[in-house]
Design brief:
By secondary structure, the chain is α+β, with helices and mostly antiparallel strands. It is built from 6 helices and 6 strands; from the N terminus they run αββααααββββα. The strands form 2 sheets. A 4-stranded antiparallel β-sheet has the order 3-4-5-6. A two-stranded antiparallel ribbon has the order 1-2.
Length: 209
């Protein structure tokens, strides 16, 4: 024989256990989410690099425009000022900032240039003076335009030409990595706007034929 108070107490116990089970599940989910967040969330560092008059920030997988442009300026200046004496140092300095597929090709070209007889006997050094820099967020490309001067070691004659360095920069685990790099004559960066204008000009030219 069951009394009414026994039935009420038993039902309350069942409800309490159910509530405790639900609360435990919720707490377990919150704990798992906290662990996941702590493992995937990384700090964003804000610094003022030398030669930059404003703050710049870099995170685990991205950075602001100032950081991309300052890093692009550093790389362009380093590559654009090589001599037969410092080519090994420059190539090794860039090894930590370039994707392996890109670095091998860049290093070969730098070694070939510095080791050529024409460069060693005629061109004492190259000097790149940046005059403009731009960053394209959609493509992660940095364009550094300037003047490349070549010093002739024998005649002390200096020749110069307009040159633009174009590089694609990604942030991997908080570090900048160059995934593509090239250079071309002129000061007009080959960004999306330039590519669009070239395509429109080519289409118009073909239309008139």
């Amino acid at each position: 024989m069951k009394f009414l108070w026994q039935k009420t107490t038993w039902e309350n116990s069942i409800r309490a256990n159910m509530m405790l089970s639900v609360s435990n599940i919720v707490m377990a989910c919150i704990a798992l989410f906290a662990v996941y967040a702590s493992m995937t969330t990384h700090e964003r560092i804000v610094v003022v690099p030398p030669g930059v008059n404003q703050t710049t920030s870099v995170g685990w997988a991205d950075a602001d425009a100032t950081y991309y442009k300052s890093f692009g300026m550093f790389v362009a200046t380093l590559i654009g000022n090589i001599t037969p004496a410092n080519v090994d140092f420059v190539s090794k300095s860039l090894s930590g900032y370039m994707d392996s597929a890109v670095y091998s090709d860049v290093r070969k070209k730098m070694i070939a240039l510095a080791g050529s007889r024409e460069f060693r006997e005629s061109a004492g050094a190259t000097k790149f003076v940046p005059t403009a820099i731009a960053y394209e967020p959609d493509t992660h490309k940095v364009f550094v335009a300037g003047q490349m001067a070549v010093m002739n070691a024998q005649s002390s004659v200096q020749t110069s030409e307009d040159l633009t360095y174009e590089m694609t920069i990604r942030i991997r685990e908080g570090q900048p990595v160059i995934t593509a790099i090239s250079s071309y004559s002129g000061l007009d960066p080959h960004d999306n706007g330039w590519i669009k204008r070239q395509a429109e000009a080519a289409a118009e030219k073909n239309g008139k034929k």
